[in-house]
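For this section, I looked closely at the sequence of one protein beside the tokens encoding its backbone, which the following lines show:
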Amino acid sequence: MEEDEKFNKLPGGIALVTGASSGIGASFARRLAAAAAGNEKYRGLPFFDELWLVARRGDRLAALAEELQATYSTKDDEKTLIIRTFALDLVAPNALAGLADKAKEQGKPVSILINNAGYGTYGPFAVINMDRQLGQIDLNCRALTEACSRFSPLLTKGSLVINVASLAGFAPLGGFAVYAATKAYVLSFSIALAVEWEGRGIRVHALCPGSVDSEFAQVASEGVRLKVAHGWSADKTTAHCLKQAGRGKAYSIPRLNWKLQRWASILAGPVQSARFANKFLVRPYRKPQQ
């Protein structure tokens, strides 16, 4: 509690978004910058005056930071949002340790931590490259868990943590096995952490979207599928998430049809859900060369 009281007395705060170079992560960055400028309002959103954007692609981050500064900064220094970019591979040794050290050096609490970085792989488990499968576990699970641990001392009463899970986290999915398993971990971990950190006054929220219009499908299929059909807007997804997180909800599923799919998977049970996905929800993937 002494650490929490110390940070409560300090001015400002840091909002940190991983996987911020595109898709949901970039949309979160835009929403937060708009909120800092007073252009958008979300109940319960903690104050911050620095926005930290983290991803592997430094050029994308720089372009996004320039866009946000041009759109939301003002000539009044007190209202100018400080935006910092960090081109990092979060599974590289000491990447998160170094980032946490930089945050501590600022002498400000981490007001908002959004763990969005992650990816998936389409295709049968035995066919898809093993390194890509294991990489999902490293980024989707280990790096997210490490981020929560390393930034925990910098979180204070009122801080908000958002972990991006998935609708896939509610049921096993044949042909999408490792990804669904990693997101089941994120969902379970986030809800447990939400309960544990209630006493610290820290809110933890798991975002569980279905198909979103982003680069996810292109990465998951290794370029075979450019985007999912009828993918929902990343901006609508993040706006809904921030509203639900601000209300203290432990998790959110932004669309009605996604909520219906979740209940259908519960009624069907895990085995039938996996079988249904394996037979009827076949996703295109790059087949290995013989």
About this structure: Residues 123 and 175 are 5 Å apart (CA to CA). The longest strand covers residues 50-55. The first helix runs from residue 2 to 8.
